[in-house]
Specification:
This protein is mainly β and 112 residues long. The protein has two domains: 36 residues, N-terminal domain of TfIIb; 54 residues, SH3 Domains (SH3 type barrels, Roll), CATH 2.30.30.40. It contains no helices and eleven strands. A hairpin with a 3-residue loop joins strand 9 and strand 10. The protein is elongated. It starts with 15 loop residues before the first strand and ends with a strand.
């Protein structure tokens, strides 16, 4: 077995040297041997004002948001309670009274 470190992407132990880089044959990830190992950190979500958001926070919508596939609109000032943060383009999962389950972008809300 080789003395090379495991792949930071897929944790494969079949890594090898290719010039100055280490390469994983399973996922194709390349990295420098001197590169510090990345720790699994959770992405940080921030509202429109730059305040950090957490699961369970209450936020307010700062812009009228059209609902795709509907003629409804989420109005400015709508309070959204108990948000859940998720990875992806729309990073807030929530339930809005009178509308139902929705996904919002954190750039269109501010923390209460």
């Amino acid at each position: 077995m080789s003395d090379f470190p495991a792949c930071p992407e897929c944790k494969s132990t079949f890594t090898y040297h290719d010039g100055t880089l280490l390469v994983c044959p399973e996922c194709g990830h390349e990295w420098s041997e001197n590169e510090p190992a990345e720790t699994d950190t959770k992405p940080e979500f921030r509202d429109a004002n730059g305040s950090p958001l957490n699961d369970g926070d209450t936020v307010t919508v700062i812009k009228d948001l059209k609902i795709k596939g509907s003629s409804s609109v989420v109005k400015v000032g709508t309070k959204v309670k108990n948000i859940r943060l998720v990875d992806g383009d729309h990073d807030i999962d929530c339930k809005i009274d009178g509308i139902g389950a929705m996904k919002l972008k954190s750039e269109f809300v501010k923390k209460v």
